[in-house]
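Memo to structure team: turn this sequence into structure tokens by end of day. - J.P.
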Amino acid sequence: MTLGFIVIILGGLGNIWAVLPAGLIIGFVETFVAFSSPQGAFLKRPVVLIILILLLTFRPSGLFGVKGWEEES
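Reply from structure team:
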């Protein structure tokens, strides 16, 4: 459940098509961390959380989100 929420936030709220690339990014990152490190099983969730924090710091609207309350016409 938490991972699904992170994927939605990463893609940008209100953009249903951004969930697919965000989910793929999270999946690739988790798999890479799990196989590249001996402690990968314990590190994959904190790495995803760090990615979420960095994304919200530098791009608060998400990867494909719209700025503010602007609507697409």
